[in-house]
UniProtKB/TrEMBL annotation:
Subcellular location(s) per record: Membrane
Pfam families (UniProt xref): TerC (PF03741)
Identification of the protein by name: YjbE family integral membrane protein
Organism: Caldimonas thermodepolymerans
Membrane topology label: Multi-pass membrane protein
Entry superkingdom: Bacteria
């Protein structure tokens, strides 16, 4: 029980909640799109079961991710993916990933749509949450993941509009979120069995890798965003 009162546990919980807010906001959009044609009486049921199924699926995926991350070099691959996700968070591409979400007037068809869409879109969440859970004690990783997901459900589903408005008003939230992913990537990379065999696993080195990952995401993300903005301005002038 005392393990649940350690600073590491609650820091990891905070990371998981922030990751879900930043990367899981699309869940609310998917649910709304998939359930919009349901009769009003069934809409709440569609939202509930769609959310429940999507979260249950994510817990299963994260369980496998935590297991697979014990294999040499896979943490390095996961860290590189997280760095890319962090960069994309700071410099998003202009694409509509919800264009293929089909609404249905049948309850279970809508629920299936939510779960399938969440499966397709959940790779970034799964990797990031598994990386954040690595900071907790091994035997508390899954309780940590489940607790973090449960806390973030109401934030994502019912508070998504408020979160989006806060992000629009305070863009620094997005920047800090991207840097958090870079931090997790750095600490994940140094913990890979292939790397750990050659480097001392000290807190100082772990923090150095984390800071390096955060700064890398910040610099590359800002440069990419500036390049995209410049290209858009040039295209607008040409038109």
């Amino acid at each position: 029980m005392e393990q649940f009162l350690t600073p590491e546990f609650w820091v990891a919980v905070g990371q998981i909640i922030m990751i879900d807010i930043l990367l899981g906001g699309d869940n609310a959009v998917v649910i709304a799109l998939a359930c919009r044609k349901l009769p009003p009486a069934q809409r709440k049921m569609g939202i509930f079961w769609g959310t429940f199924g999507a979260i249950a699926l994510r817990v299963v995926l994260i369980f496998f991710a935590l297991t697979l991350l014990q294999i040499p070099y896979l943490k390095i691959v996961g860290a590189l993916l997280l760095l890319w996700i962090g960069v994309k968070l700071l410099a998003p591409e202009d694409d509509d990933e919800h264009a293929n979400i089909q609404a249905s007037d049948k309850l279970w068809a809508a629920v299936k749509t939510v779960i399938v869409a969440d499966f397709v879109m959940s790779l970034d969440n799964v990797i990031a949450i598994a990386g954040a859970a690595e900071t907790a004690a091994d035997h508390h990783q899954m309780p940590l993941v489940i607790f973090g997901l449960l806390v973030s459900i109401p934030i994502i589903v019912w508070g998504s509009q408020m979160v989006i408005k806060l992000m629009d008003r305070f863009p620094v939230i997005i920047t800090l979120g991207g840097m958090l992913l870079g931090w997790i990537a750095g600490t994940m990379m140094i913990g890979d069995p292939a790397v750990a065999a050659h480097l001392p696993q000290t807190d100082m080195l772990k923090y150095a890798f984390g800071i390096g990952g955060a700064l890398l995401v910040l610099v590359v993300g800002k440069l990419r965003a500036a390049r995209t903005k410049k290209a858009e301005e040039a295209s607008s002038d040409a038109a």
